[in-house]
Amino acid sequence: MRVKPAMTNMNNLFDVKGKVAVVTGGYGVLGSSISKHLAAQGAEVVILGRSANNAQKVLDEIAATGAKARFIVVDVLNLTALRQAKAEILAQFKKIDILINVAGGNVAGATLTADQPFFDMKLEDWEKVVNLNMNGTIYPCYVFGEVMAQQKFGSIINISSMAALSALTRVPGYSAAKAAVTNFTQWLATDMALKYGDGVHVNAIAPGFFIGDQNRALLINPDGSYTDRSKKILNKTPMNRFGDLSELNGAVQFLCSEAASFVTGVVLPVDGGFSAYSGV
Ligand SMILES: NC(=O)c1ccc[n+]([C@@H]2O[C@H](COP(=O)([O-])OP(=O)(O)OC[C@H]3O[C@@H](n4cnc5c(N)ncnc54)[C@H](O)[C@@H]3O)[C@@H](O)[C@H]2O)c1
Q1: Cβ of residue 29 lying under 6 Å from some atom of ligand 1
Q2: Atom 35 in ligand 1: which residue has the minimum CA distance?
Q3: Which residues are catalytic?
Q4: pLDDT (mean) for 151-161
Q5: Given ligand 1 and candidates 53, 138, 161, 214, which is best to mutate, with the most ligand atoms within 8 Å of its CB?
Q6: Which of 30, 74, 94, 258 could cross-link 81 (Cys pair, CB 3.0–4.6 Å)?
């Protein structure tokens, strides 16, 4: 019979203790919150990012709780650096259980002003935002996913966006790249399961709207009031509020734990109902 034996310990379904979790962009707004949560749950967190100085704050915060994390300088678009990081992580831990691709986001010139024609956008900026969000997710999957295929276990979580599901004004390149992340998540999930069995999971989270450094100016006026864009977002969010960073933790932990043993290829919205609601 093609079924998995019944789970033996239903009390520890969400356990991530001792799992080795690589988090790209792990000192950004969403990434640091996720890294801190996984470390607090007993995972061995390895943060990958471009600046050791910028990583120090989250490393100190994690160390202050008695939990563990380390940092490796990696630009996610640099395959050589990704491969070196893979070798370092395997030398230390002998396995990689979790990869969370958080590095990404908008690029200034690729965000149109409200009245700016698409045809004025510089294609260099389009290429930058697509490259970061699409290849910046695919390259780590290429390098660390191979380890998981060989091990025959592991969980990859990519970060898609509401922009991948229906059109968000002003961010065409970001939207196209996040749609590619969604599609690639499904593709890789399928390929992994067909070729390597049921131990490697590839899923994505599509966060709704969480106020961070990249979108603050679009959402909050200098006087602290909501922009018109914010008001439109809240009107289309049945829960009528922005997300709190801590509200991503449950979805992340679920997708990288035994609780998701039969879940692959999904894109889980964490959005207060934004993607479910037509607005009417
Ligand atoms: N904030 C939101 O509401 C929201 C909503 C949907 C999706 N997202 C996505 O979540 C992810 C994190 O967003 P955030 O709001 O925390 O942004 P952030 O800017 O705080 O974090 C992004 C991180 O990625 C890193 N990064 C960028 N380019 C990199 C590169 N080439 N190599 C390595 N690291 C690189 C940055 O240094 C930063 O640490 C992004 O993919 C973003 O698109 C955010």
Answers
A1: yes
A2: 103
A3: 174
A4: 98
A5: 214
A6: 74
Alpha-carbon dihedral angle through residues 38, 40, 42, 47, given to the nearest 10 degrees: 50
What's the whole-number average pLDDT of the chain? 95
Decide if 154 contacts 98 (C-beta within 8 A): yes
pLDDT at 6 (0 to 100): 72
Work out the number of other CB atoms within 10 angstroms of the CB of residue 66: 8
Residue 26 CA: which ligand 1 atom is closest? 39
Report the run of H or E that residue 98 belongs to, with start and end.
strand 98-101
Q: Report whether residue 95 contacts ligand 1, using a CB cutoff of 6 Å.
A: no
- Cβ-Cβ contacts under 8 Å for 24 (sequence gap 6 or more): 31, 48, 49, 74, 76, 99, 100, 101, 102, 103, 136, 140
Q: How high is the pLDDT of residue 9?
A: 66
Amino acid sitting at position 280 = V
Task: Assess whether the C-beta atom of 79 lies below 6 angstroms from ligand 1.
Answer: no
Report the pLDDT value the prediction gives residue 8, as an integer from 0 to 100: 58
88-105: per-residue pLDDT in tens? 999 999 999 999 999 999
Residue 92: per-residue pLDDT = 98
User: Ligand 1 in contact with 274 (CB < 6 A)?
Assistant: no
Check pocket membership of 212 for ligand 1, CB cut-off 6 A.
Answer: yes
The residues that bridge with 157 in the sheet, in sequence order, are 100, 203
Cα–Cα distance measured from residue 278 to residue 280, given in angstroms and rounded to the nearest whole number: 5
Q: Is it the case that residue 217 has pLDDT exceeding 90?
A: no
Phi, psi of 73, rounded to the nearest 5 degrees = -70, 115
Q: Which residue has the tokens 């109902």?
A: 273
Residue 187: how many CA atoms within 13 Å on its side-chain side?
9
**Is residue 10 classed as helix, strand or coil in its secondary structure?**
helix
The pLDDT of residue 256 = 97
Residue of 202, 200, 208, 199 whose CA lies nearest to 248: 208
